[in-house]
Amino acid sequence: MVGNQEVTPESGPGKGRRLEIEIISSGRELLIGKTVNTNAAWMASRLTWIGASVTRIVVVGDSVQEISGAIIETLARRPAALIITGGLGPTYDDMTVEALASALRVPNALNEEALRMVSEKYSAMGLPMAPQRIKMAYLPIGAEPIRNDVGTAPGVSAELMGTRIFCLPGVPREMKAMFESSVLPALSKRSGAVYGERTLLLERVPESTLASVIDEVRRLHPNVYFKSHPKGSEALPLIEMHLSAYAPDADSLSKALDSAEGELISAARQIGALVRRGCA
């Protein structure tokens, strides 16, 4: 339970059903182009390969109102999980924990376990517990800290109405370590699907010609996603075709991708394409 809100028991989505996950990345540096949002791309890839589906990635600035508003909007959609990165440190513009408390409508309070984690870190460095460091031990009431083995600021774990919420540091190496040790194992247990993909390289046929072929094949395979990536030009065409799918199990996944890939290869060759498997 978080505050006065009852939390539903943790359960999987059922075999074959994908976990829907949303990501909120906070930080003005992302909005002004100073920093590329590699955190979101890395997490999306890792989550996809456990059979989860990242349905939305949002970037917001260092503002309690903006972060809280994005959290509230996400919770209204009730995804299986929400992952927030950035804003957990000791400075004035680290506002994610305050924003989370605002969104959950609970106060922040000093968390004894989080305080112990932070104290141990600074004690090992021979540094005192200044107010800015104690700030990192405040969590929304009902939330739990996530151990940060690489940095100093603990992460945050909470749950509201069936949505698991994870707050992770924005520093990539800290985020990745915490994600691998705490977030991914928790979500993997709840995943009810498997994911797979295939890549084909098509030459000699421009994308505008291939478009009708893709439409015909994808109508026969509604559970497979077909995406064309032009690598050349209309005059010298080279197209990377990416086929991806989710399924209840590995056998069903292989059958779906095998069938879709085979029909696309056959149809593409009929219009003069040179087709080979692999990556550009």
Characterization of this structure:
The chain is an alpha/beta fold and 280 residues long. It folds into 2 domains: 19-188, MoaB/Mog-like domain (Molybdenum Cofactor Biosythetic Enzyme, Chain A, 3-Layer(aba) Sandwich); 194-277, 2-Layer Sandwich (Alpha-Beta Plaits). It has 9 helices and 12 strands. The protein has a 6-stranded mixed beta sheet, with helices on both faces. The chain is elongated and about 70 Å long.
Q: What integer is the average pLDDT?
A: 93
Write down the CATH class of the largest domain: Alpha Beta
Order of helices and strands: EHHEHEHEHHEEEEHEHEEHE
Q: Unreliable stretches, pLDDT < 50, 5 or more residues?
A: 1-12
CATH architecture of the largest domain: 3-Layer(aba) Sandwich
Number of domains: 2
Described by strand count, sense and barrel closure, the largest sheet is: 6 strands, mixed
* CATH topology title of the largest domain: Molybdenum Cofactor Biosythetic Enzyme, Chain A
CATH superfamily of the largest domain, by name, is MoaB/Mog-like domain
Q: Note the gap between the termini.
A: 49 Å
The proportion of residues forming helix, as a percent range, comes to 25-40%
Structural class by secondary-structure content: alpha/beta
**Number of helical stretches of at least 4 residues:** 9
Radius of gyration computed on alpha carbons: 23 Å
Gross morphology is elongated
- Order of strands in the sheet with most strands: 2-1-3-8-7-6
- Residue fraction in strands: 25-35%
Beta-strand segment tally: 12
